[in-house]
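Lab channel / #folding
Pinned by the channel admin:
"Please post every new chain as: sequence first, then the structure tokens as a reply. Keep commentary short and put observations after the output so the thread stays searchable."

First post following the new format, from NK:
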Amino acid sequence: MSEEKKKAEEMTQIEEMGGVLVKSKKMNIYCLSIVGQIEGHSNLPPDTKTTKYEHVIPKLVEVEQDDGIDGLLIMLNTVGGDVEAGLAISEMIASMKKPTVSIVLGGGHSIGVPLAVSAKHSFIVPSATMTIHPIRTSGVIIGVHQTFEYLSRVQERICDFVQRNSKISSDDFLRIMLETENIANDVGTVLFGEEAVSCGLIDSVGGLGDALETLHNMKG
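Reply from TO:
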């Protein structure tokens, strides 16, 4: 394959997937960006920055199966989005055998929290924030009781996933999720870099260099 064609394919990957394969003598790493809003079963407006789950899911399969890829780096700057799509991506990352490292750069809000903790090791930069809040819904609700029960069960799934894939206890996660004094117009908590680590949600405070070094060490 010509050098021009390789560069064209890389640009297509960056534009459509927000990802690129970075090759070096130490390790071949696929860098996956999860940015903007996680798009689920419905298309968001064209002027909204999105991460589409139908793009990410097959790419994760490719990363896991491709012998030329040694590890996965997930770079997060997301406001959250579709819960089922976010959980599906999180479960896939958590089940991967290859080395995986995540880094929260700007924000890892809402369903971005499970995505951040799904990797084998998670980082957050000091200035980044993470918002933990209860499940919300919008639109017409036909059965209030049934909808409440469904949302409650989905929230339990999220709490269970976060507890299984981080060092935070389920009680502490629920406490900060249901806090009423931290956000002016909502229930929940905003955690900054050091706070996310001190409560056990994220493994380490660090940047890109730390994340890459951890991936290299995982390969051995």
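NK: Residues 144-164 form the longest helix (21 residues).
TO: also worth noting, The mean pLDDT is 84.
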